[in-house]
Amino acid sequence: MTGLMLELGFAVDQVDAAGPAVDLRRRLDLARRRFDEGFEFVHLHSKYPDPISHENDP
Questions:
Q1: Contacts (Cβ under 8 Å, ≥6 apart) of 34
Q2: Buried/exposed code over 39-50 (b: 16+ C-beta within 10 A; e: otherwise)
Q3: In whole angstroms, how far apart are CA 15 and each of 20, 54, 57, 58?
Q4: So where are the chain's domains?
Q5: Mind listing the pLDDT tens digit for each residue in 1-39?
Q6: With a threshold of 0.90, does the pTM exceed it?
């Protein structure tokens, strides 16, 4: 998905994996920085709420 987003002109940031609380804090901090830079839209995605779908092993 990253390649598609880059091709469409989106800014894509990767966040290092951490526990759920740290992961969310890092993503929210990054979102705040992006808004401060002038972005009008930020999409956050974390794999923690949906581990089964990310493991492809229902």
A1: 11, 13, 42
A2: eeeeeeeeeeee
A3: 12, 16, 24, 25
A4: 2-55
A5: 678 989 999 999 988 878 888 988 999 999 999 999 999
A6: no
